[in-house]
Design goal:
Blueprint: H1 11-25, E1 28-31, H2 36-43, H3 45-51, H4 61-75, H5 79-91, E2 97-100, E3 120-125, E4 127-128, E5 143-144, H6 147-154, E6 162-166, E7 169-173, E8 179-180, E9 191-195, H7 200-313, H8 322-327, E10 332-336, E11 339-343, E12 348-350, E13 356-359
Antiparallel strand pairs: 1-2, 3-9, 4-8, 5-7, 6-7, 6-9, 10-11, 11-12, 12-13
Helix pairs in contact: 2-5
Length: 369
């Protein structure tokens, strides 16, 4: 919207005019003075506190119980006493009285009072300051209808750095950095007066330094964050590497265990083969012993036949005395591993020269060795 248009025709202008009209209509309000009961209550409050043990009360009880007890005691008063208190209240202004309100007359378009002020730099058009002072922005405290009133108040407010003329009046501000108005409608009306003690260039430099410090702080923070992130990433990488190394070690251990198991299995097969070979050899030995035993049996049978023949041919020898017969020992031939031996009744073995070799033993298989 262009500057040439009438402010009164805009929404902001209509709102401003409506507020001014409302202020014009409310020029006074009624205010009642204290009643007779309130005068009596205030005069006897200490006595009532003693009645309700005020020191032991907490929170809202300090108000409600005192008022309740006061009402009870007021009800016990004689009508004459109540009348006296009511009369005293009327004399002290208990009847409603009219209080006149000062009308706040201000027009942002009125630039007749926008003059230079001693101790201030300005007016600077199209600029403003931000920040509320310790007195706030209430009318008559931090906001005024005239520049002179604002200057008088600003000189007594320690944290005030300047005065800004805005849409609502002349306001006290604490900001030390000028800001440009971007709204074209109010650009020519908004102005600022800065206390001469405020060095705008210095404040601008401070603002720049602060901005640079903030940037550096951000950069350092980002750098610190990057460093922290790098450390965290290094820790995460170390953990991942540890896990991978553990897996690799587990695989290597599994391979070693598999190789050992294969060797154990191979050795077991070799042992089984040896046992099988031993069994085969034992079987051959047993079979050889059985063959020898069979051969011995055949030899025995032959010897038996020979003995029988000899006994039949030597019947004349039966007349030998019994002592001689008892001293004779039966001897048989025994073939063992291709060699012929002689064995007596006690299984004593003799060679061809009749030398005693030892005693033969009968194996579990029934053969002798």
């Amino acid at each position: 919207m262009m500057l040439s248009c009438d402010i009164a025709t805009t929404n902001a202008g209509r709102l401003y005019n409506a507020m001014e009209a409302y202020n014009d209509s409310v020029t006074a309000k009624k205010k009642r003075g204290s009643s007779g009961y309130m005068l009596w209550l205030n005069s006897n409050r200490e006595m009532i506190k003693g009645e309700v043990e005020y020191e032991k009360l907490v929170g809202k009880e300090k108000v409600t119980l005192v008022a309740k007890k006061g009402g009870e005691l007021w009800g016990l008063l004689e009508d004459i006493e109540k009348s006296e208190w009511n009369t005293k209240a009327r004399e002290l202004g208990g009847v409603a009285k009219t209080v006149r309100r000062v009308k706040f007359e201000y027009d942002v378009k009125d630039m007749s009072g926008d003059v230079q002020v001693n101790g201030y730099e300005g007016p600077i058009v199209g600029q403003l300051l931000s920040g509320k002072t310790s007195v706030g922005v209430g009318r008559g405290k931090g906001t005024f209808a005239t520049l002179s009133e604002a200057v008088e108040s600003a000189n007594n407010v320690g944290d005030c750095s300047g005065i800004v003329k805005g849409k609502g009046g002349y306001q006290l501000r604490t900001g030390r950095k000028l800001k440009s108005i971007t709204d074209e409608m109010w650009k020519d009306y908004v102005k600022v007066w800065v206390k001469s003690s405020i060095d705008l260039e210095e404040e601008k430099s401070k603002a720049s330094e602060k901005k640079v410090a903030e940037i550096l702080s951000t950069v350092n923070s980002e750098s610190a964050e990057d460093t922290r992130e790098a450390k965290l990433e290094a820790k995460r990488e170390a953990k991942r590497e540890a896990k991978l190394e553990a897996k690799r070690e587990a695989k290597r251990e599994a391979k070693r265990e598999a190789k050992l198991e294969a060797k154990r299995e191979e050795n077991k097969e070799e042992v089984d083969d040896e046992e099988t070979l031993d069994l085969s050899e034992n079987k051959e030995v047993v079979e050889e012993e059985e063959r020898l035993e069979l051969s011995e049996n055949k030899t025995l049978d032959k010897n038996k036949e020979v003995v029988e023949d000899e006994e039949s041919d030597e019947e004349s020898d039966e007349e030998l005395d019994e002592d001689s017969d008892e001293d004779e020992t039966d001897v048989i031939q025994w073939e063992y591993k291709g060699t012929t031996y002689y064995v007596d009744d006690n299984d004593m073995v003799y060679d061809q020269n009749t030398d005693e070799i030892g005693k033969r033993i009968k194996a579990k298989s029934g053969t002798y060795k």
